[in-house]
Amino acid sequence: MFVDEVKNIRLNAGKGGDGCLSFRREKFVPKGGPNGGDGGDGGDIVLVGDANVSDLVEYRFKPHAHAKNGQPGMGSDMHGKNGEDKVLRVPIGTVIFNSANGNSVAEIISHEQKIILLRGGVGGKGNEAFKSSTNQAPRHTTPGTPGEEGTFNFVLKTIADVGLVGFPNAGKSTLTSILTDATPKIANYPFTTLHVNVGVMRDDSKKSRVLIADIPGIINGAHKNRGLGLKFLKHIERCKTLVYLIDMSGIDNRDPSQDFSDIKSELLHYDESLLKKHGVVVANKIDSDASKKNLRAFKGKYKIDVMEISCTKGIGLEALRKKIFELAL
Ligand SMILES: Nc1nc2c(ncn2[C@@H]2O[C@H](COP(=O)(O)OP(=O)(O)OP(=O)(O)O)[C@@H](O)[C@H]2O)c(=O)[nH]1
Ligand SMILES: [Mg+2]
Fold first, then answer.
1. Helices vs. strands in the chain: H and E counts, helices first
2. Which element (helix H / strand E) includes 293?
3. Is 171's C-beta closer than 6 angstroms to any atom of ligand 1?
4. Average pLDDT, whole number, for the chain?
5. 287-300, pLDDT tens digit by residue?
6. Is 156 helix (H, G, I), strand (E, B) or coil?
7. Residues with CB under 5 A from ligand 2 (ion)
8. Does any ligand 1 atom lie closer than 6 A to the CB of residue 218?
9. Is 285's C-beta closer than 6 angstroms to any atom of ligand 1?
């Protein structure tokens, strides 16, 4: 199970420890002065980006976390121990939203990036701290302050340069496996891919790299939750470039021209700004007999540049690689 969204995670930073009220009591020291120490600070809730964590499944099963409270101060001027921070390791690309108002409050974009999401309370003062020339025996202390708390939604949004969008079976995973180091499952049935795969495409000199995200298939009506719905489109929000992959073979009586307009309309329903991204339209499966006729109709209808490829016959792939580097870098 790949979990890319967990709602209502309750988080509490630790409370500050109370200050201590205490006086020195020693033999032969009849009026020992105040010696109550300060309380320790409460632990923070800290988020850390971790490239080895791939999804949010851990939080689905444990949607709450609490940092440790600070220890109260003690006699003999002893400072209470600070509460330990609670460190939450999250995948890179995690965006944290405040559940109450939906505002995004933090975003993890790199490995070992650290964000203090909630601050622990401050430790209270012990009576030692209130000693003065006019008050040699203060009985005053302050309590530790509460830690910050809140309820958050964690959403994992893939960070990729290029997103592949298309109907199921268009060949998105096949293309990803050719262009990148990823090895997604490929099969001749729809919805083979159930979560996003990200692969790295390198140029020959290995100097530049482009991250390509293979997005699960979108179908007409996805915005009404048909098929796998639109939940995967959040993964292309951050892509700079979209590759629209169209199955030109028109298998199962599908009309490639209709597929393209359906995909665009689904993206529009999700977020119209997706349509403003750089896009390259790619016709796949041009090795098939039906593709020529379909391609002619497609070009007649849209009058746009179409890159023609066949993943299985290795046609047009080099030109597509170049184009993707050009657009993504
Ligand atoms: N004839 C032909 N078949 C292809 C080509 N590219 C991919 N296929 C086949 O199309 C089928 C679907 O390929 P996938 O890569 O799994 O398609 P997908 O778009 O990832 O599909 P979902 O994960 O279901 O959304 C497989 O049987 C592939 O072998 C091509 O260029 N020509
Ligand atoms: Mg696939």
1. 5, 14
2. helix 291-302
3. yes
4. 90
5. 999 999 999 999 99
6. strand
7. 173, 192-193
8. no
9. yes
